[in-house]
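hi support,

uploading two proteins for the ticket. first:
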Amino acid sequence: MSQIEFYKYQGTGNDFVMIDNRQQQFPKNDTKLIAKLCDRKFGIGADGLILLELSKLHDFTMKYYNADGNEGSMCGNGGRCIVAFAKQLQVIETDTIFDAVDGLHEAHIKDGIVSLKMKDVAEVEQFSDYMFLDTGSPHHIAFVDGIQDFDVYNTGKSIRYGAPYFEKGTNVNFVEQQNENTFKIRTYERGVEDETLSCGTGATAVAIAAYHSKKTSKNNVFLETLGGTLEVSFGTDTNSYKKVFLKGKATMVFKGFFEL
């Protein structure tokens, strides 16, 4: 049996198994293994697994897998964590450009705070009782009252599998405004199929949705998740959003080995 070293990282409570896979030793097509490693009772426990791999043109490549073992769309908090991981591995120093499933990302890290550039957002769909946009992952956003006692799991699950998303699904965010540019957010994540303590692409989507729907006039927005506070800033160009940055702490929790 061979041993694989892993690291556990978290960004505002969104936690990940991180593996240095520059030598291509990890069997990344083994969805059952990935799901087992992410299992909180029979494995390491995480919302997802992230591989740091070589890139032909940039500092590294990020490969993200959901807790169900399948390769996922972009994960914002995971992106922040892999920047901290790359710094720990001495792949980068303070600034980086890396490859991810939704394209290139720039990032800066200082004192454990990672500022991650997200993809531009060209379209925000606004309906009578919800909004929808893609920030690297798809997000359904509903502004609600009494978010602390809101049934995120059951309501989120019904929306995630319901029309118009069905099997492909979406992440579902419930939001309550606190002041002019602060919003509380709770997220049901597809792939995890449960509420998570934080969702980076969700926080990004909520910040843009709040501005787009004129709930705030600020282009720097604070998102209070169950796991801590994230900051999102962006620039506007007619109805599109550019220079979108997700900022917050990314921390190593522990490291260890598992046997294949």
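and the second one:
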Amino acid sequence: MSNDLKNHHLSAAQMAKFAADGYLKLEDLVPRELNEEACAEMREYAGQGGRYWFESKVIQQIFELPQVKGAVQSFVGTKPVYDHSFLHVVKARHLLGQDYHADSIIDTRPFGFDVQAFYFSHDTPAIMGPTLVLPGSHLRKVSNMSIGRYKNITGQLKLESKAGTIAFLHHGIWHCAQPNHTDVTRYVFKLRLRPGQEQRSLFNTEGYDSPEVLNIIKKAQPSWAGDESRVNQVNIAKFWRYLCGDDKVDASFEGTLTRMGL
């Protein structure tokens, strides 16, 4: 993924949504023909989930699409580093859900992150058990399964998706797989990439400090955080500074960063 595809980079508003929520779902990113080919291949695939990236005839082609590469570059730059991948399969009528977790030990990077791309080759409605995420939890660093005792949290949502959708998740977001209540096996392919460069100003930064975009960050006070929602919002405002490459832009609650001389 070495080619720079600036015309396909994410907008400031899109990146602000990612900064605030810890994920960004892009619909209609993959054309129907490739979705159908990938879905058929996944249903026939008998190998190990961790080998699908290397043995598939179509999945790397999907991630070479300009619109997909442009989105990836917006998160991790033009030379991302492959971390791991997996084809997740939830059988029909598999009624056991996963425990809440974050896909990492406690990360020592202050703001750098890996991105996890979840590709849906077929329609995945709520009843089929798409990945459950907790928006805004990505900067609340935890160690992997330490949050498994939580079962339902205010504000959680399922990544219901149409075929051709790719959801890009911050590696720290709290999430878990859900039961599949249908008679059809569910598939989702996950690709995790590490940044190949500092993750500053990698997206289309036009309008990053506009009132409309800053308002997305200012409203990032999830109800699950309770009394700490403002603290969570200030951390997201710091994250936005990092992503923009501007250490003075201030979208924090009541201008907290500026008032503190930060």
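thanks. also noticed: The helical segments are 12-21, 32-44, 52-55, 59-62, 66-76, 211-218, 229-244, 256-259.
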